From TrEMBL:
Organism from which the protein derives: Hankyongella ginsenosidimutans
Name of the protein: Ubiquinone biosynthesis O-methyltransferase
Gene3D superfamilies listed in its UniProt record: Vaccinia Virus protein VP39 (3.40.50.150)
Pathway noted in the entry: Cofactor biosynthesis; ubiquinone biosynthesis
Gene behind the chain: ubiG
CDD domains, per the entry: AdoMet_MTases
E.C. numbers: 2.1.1.222, 2.1.1.64
Known role: O-methyltransferase that catalyzes the 2 O-methylation steps in the ubiquinone biosynthetic pathway.
Length: 249
C-alpha cells in the first residue's frame, strides 16, 4: 500500500497540543524544561551509540558524513546539537508552528538543518532514507504505533540505527511523569501525557521486531533531585533510552 494512502501516524489532538507550546520550546524554564534537563544525557547517549555503530572517531565533529532524521523534532532541541557534531540533519514535525520556530532558531545559530512539517510518511513516499533515525519522547503521542515503527524501518538504510527514548508504563512512571512532573512540580502542562499510551520495554521490543528492527541497547534514564540532572542507569522503571538496527550490509 502506498504510504500516503494509509492512515497517518499523526494524532491531531497531540499535534494541536504541541503546536500551542511552539513559541516556548527554547525556554529552559518553560513547559519544555524536562526536555532541556534531559538533553545533555540524551545527546551524549546518541553520540556514543552512533560513534560505536558506525565506527566513528572521537572528535568535535564526530558525526560528520552521517545523515540523521529527527522524527518528531519539535523546535530542534536535538537537531541542533547533532548538527554541531557534524551530521547532516533533517527534522520533521507534525506542527507547522514548531517547525517555524525551529527554522528561526537554527538561522540565528548559523546551522543548516533541513526542517520539514508534516507526516514522516511523506518522506517514505519520496524515497528518503537515512543512516540514523532519532525519535525521542514521541511514540507515546502517535496515533498508530505499529505504523510508526514501520515508517521508521522504511526510512532507515540497511544497517542503519534507530535511537529512541520514552516513558515506561509503570506505577513509578505514573507517579513521576504524571503526578510529579505535571501536577506537583508543574514542569509540564497538565494533560501532556496519557499514561495509558506509554509502552513497556517488552512492548517496545515486540513492536521493533514486527517492523524488522532489532534491539541493540537499552538503558534507564534516571533523575537525581539533588543535582537536578538525568543520568543513564539500569533502572528502566520511569524512562528508558535505547538503540535498534535495521538488518542489512
Amino acid at each position: 500500500m502506498n504510504a500516503s494512502a494509509a492512515p497517518s501516524t499523526i494524532d491531531p489532538a497531540e499535534q494541536a497540543k504541541f503546536a500551542s507550546l511552539a513559541n516556548r520550546w527554547w525556554d529552559a524554564d518553560g513547559p519544555m524544561a524536562p526536555l532541556h534537563r534531559l538533553n545533555p544525557t540524551r545527546i551524549g547517549y546518541l553520540r556514543d551509540q552512533l560513534r560505536a555503530h558506525f565506527g566513528l572517531p572521537d572528535s568535535r565533529r564526530c558525526l560528520e558524513g552521517l545523515t540523521i532524521l529527527d522524527l518528531g523534532c519539535g523546535a530542534g532541541l536535538v537537531c541542533e546539537p547533532l548538527a554541531r557534531l557534524g551530521a547532516a540533519v533533517t527534522g520533521i514535525d507534525a506542527a507547522d508552528e514548531s517547525i517555524a520556530v525551529a527554522r528561526a532558531h537554527a538561522a540565528q545559530s548559523g546551522l543548516g538543518i533541513d526542517y520539514r512539517s508534516g507526516a514522516a510518511e511523506a518522506l517514505v513516499d519520496a524515497g528518503c532514507q537515512f543512516d540514523a533515525v532519532v525519535s525521542l519522547e514521541v511514540v507515546e503521542h502517535v496515533a498508530d504505533v505499529a505504523r510508526y515503527f514501520e515508517t521508521i524501518a522504511a526510512l532507515l538504510k540497511p544497517g542503519g540505527l534507530f535511537l529512541f527514548s520514552t516513558p515506561n508504563r509503570t506505577v513509578a512512571s505514573f507517579l513521576s511523569v504524571i503526578v510529579g512532573a505535571e501536577y506537583l512540580l508543574r514542569w509540564l502542562p497538565r494533560g501532556t501525557h496519557d499514561w495509558r499510551r506509554f509502552l513497556t520495554p517488552d512492548q517496545f521490543r515486540q513492536a521493533l521486531g514486527s517492523a524488522g528492527l532489532q534491539l541493540m541497547d537499552l538503558r534507564g534514564l534516571s533523575y537525581t533531585p539533588v543535582s537536578e540532572r538525568f543520568h543513564l542507569s539500569d533502572d528502566l522503571s520511569v524512562n528508558y533510552i535505547g538503540s535498534a538496527t535495521k538488518a542489512g550490509a
